[in-house]
């Protein structure tokens, strides 16, 4: 009951002018970054990470939640209008949305994308709030060996979802783990890998890694592809005329899609969100395929199916709620955005786990409220009010945009710690991430390895201490066996078992 | 026979770089000395050594797989432009404190505008946009968040 009361208080917290302003500001920033091809909500949160050092944890989390939700939705804007997904999670939306756009039904497609995002995002956040107390109780049942096996499970899933690239993904994850070991060893207070440098004694902070891997590497990638990616065709955009009332989907179309499609896609998206490393693209893909499989009109998929748009957008926004569950309860982020949100929590001295909900629910409840308000009110409202302006965003010069991003990334990495060393580290890690991306090594796996690595090591060593060095503790502890078996099951399902005939459109 | 150009490409250069990095890391891992004697698996060396061994195995696997791949994928895009961004950024970080936020950022934005070919022929617009970018982020960090940014002669 206390938990639900604190949820209610979370909504009240949004009435505070600062909290309200950061929610709206975050939503608009997320919409802009999500809609601009090449920019993502992850980049938006990465750039704003230094800002979170300057403000309280509550507005910082509110801002992160609204960016996450809006960035997930707004990728559909350019996916539909110019067939360039603003975010990878909108790839499936582009398939049908742009077909509708070419038939003069672009506003209708945008309306269905917003409706799907609104339903999926809201239900996903409600599911998050409903299951948090249960997840908190479950987290208390897990002992030290089980915690090791749970993190091991998360790391294995993170690398095996990169099917076809598992070796490189594991290398990236191990690299992240190795970077995380730099500094004083937490258990024995021994300096490791400092090479006599005082600056490395405290270890490498999350911030330069995030800025480097997601902001600087992105600028370098854009510089590399400068001639390949032409500026958006301004004439094409000028031709597009959209009226506000066209954004509102017809009730007959919604009935044809069916509430079951929205609900099923939401549940799929939510569950994929809970899975570490899966993310919005997989949520949209799986629910799109499932919706097509069970559709009465599968032939319409890929040719302008509103049902396909609804399924993909409901799922990728529902993923936002799901991704918070393992992050808040076990410290295991489901995707890069929640990994950065975890960083915000840690910077402010909050530790994920059951105690977070028990003792500090007042700090995280406004974030849940922000997720719901962003999905339920801000997505449809901004589409209605700003929809006709959305297209104009893509006409902003990329030269100006990336120059601005470079400045905000570097100055941001300085202001967080007032350290030139942190700025230099951002550049070094950014260059590393750039070459990794060029050679198909996942910087996301590196980030998650960096975040989960220290916990993996700590729980492993603690468990070994508890058993006097007997590794059988991992096979005799019930919770540990459960997660090891779960790991084996996932490896079998994703890697070993041969897939059925390809179903991708 | 594998061409020299292919051996120098990122698909080989990066794993080799990681191999060197892992070797340095492993050597440093062996050099870790705990004040209290701990069994190996409970000590601060265990996970770094295991991670290094796994890195070696995976990097060798990746390198062998690359050798066996007959047709190399050429990397599209430019080489010099990202290098110029790296150089400009490195110089910016180096002069950030000595020159102060204002001058160093303005010069950095000029450099980026040149690299990204933004309004290079419209000199007035070029300067105005650079001044605006510099001022906007100064207002964000120094004025709104009250961060003390480096100054040159007490000026921004």
From TrEMBL, chain A:
Coiled coil: none
Xref: Pfam families: TctA
Domain DUF112: 21-448
Record key words, sorted: Membrane, Transmembrane, Transmembrane helix
This protein's record includes keyword Transmembrane: yes
Transmembrane segments: 20-49, 61-82, 109-131, 138-160, 166-188, 200-221, 267-289, 324-347, 367-387, 399-421, 472-495
Keyword match Membrane: yes
Domain of life: Bacteria
UniProt xrefs under InterPro entries: DUF112_TM
Cross-referenced PANTHER family: TRICARBOXYLIC TRANSPORT PROTEIN
The protein's name in its UniProt record: Tricarboxylate transporter
The species this protein was found in: Paracoccus aestuariivivens
Lineage of origin: Bacteria, Pseudomonadati, Pseudomonadota, Alphaproteobacteria, Rhodobacterales
